[in-house]
Q: What sequence folds into this?
């Protein structure tokens, strides 16, 4: 690779992600499927990154992210709450259809999270992470191991878009997204690459 890139790795499947339950602060382990996905993500990562050790590997402190990094063969330099999933507040553990019973048309991208994080708070956290990433990229590739919704906000913010633009980016469990730039313009180089 001519330029260093940011690789986002989403954690493997958990019991709640398999059933569509919003999982923010709840610390769940990977399922057996999630562990297999994490191993496979490691193989995908090895094929994509060219064998050079990354300059920095950060992970959410949630067990599902840390374990995914471990099974993928990544040595985490630091865990940070800055990479935690969006705090869903009162909607923690609920599915979208359950939430829509009382809030018709609700989505994480368009409605508030009572008792949780606002889109502005998530944006601030994402921008803080990306400021750190941009500094670290001078020394090599950077890998962030985290969660679905928050990683989609990171993608949006990398491109200079608002957090709600994350709705446009699919990011499956144990998949990898690569962000870089072309002549100074931010770009998505690979999106939602499945574990092999």
A:
């Amino acid at each position: 690779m001519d330029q260093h890139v940011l690789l986002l790795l989403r954690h493997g499947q958990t019991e709640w992600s398999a059933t569509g339950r919003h999982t923010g602060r709840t610390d769940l382990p990977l399922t057996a499927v999630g562990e297999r996905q994490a191993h496979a993500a490691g193989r995908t990562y090895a094929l994509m990154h060219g064998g050079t050790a990354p300059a920095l590997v950060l992970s959410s402190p949630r067990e599902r992210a840390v374990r995914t990094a471990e099974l993928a063969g990544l040595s985490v330099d630091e865990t940070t709450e800055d990479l935690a999933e969006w705090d869903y507040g009162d909607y923690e553990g609920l599915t979208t259809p359950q939430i829509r019973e009382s809030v018709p048309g609700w989505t994480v991208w368009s409605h508030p999270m009572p008792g949780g994080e606002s889109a502005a708070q998530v944006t601030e956290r994402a921008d803080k992470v990306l400021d750190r990433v941009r500094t670290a990229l001078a020394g090599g590739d950077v890998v962030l191991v985290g969660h679905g919704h928050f990683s989609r906000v990171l993608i949006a913010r990398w491109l200079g878009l608002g957090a709600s633009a994350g709705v446009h980016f699919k990011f499956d469990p144990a998949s990898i997204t690569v962000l870089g730039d072309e002549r100074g313009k931010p770009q998505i180089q690979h999106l939602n690459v499945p574990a092999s």
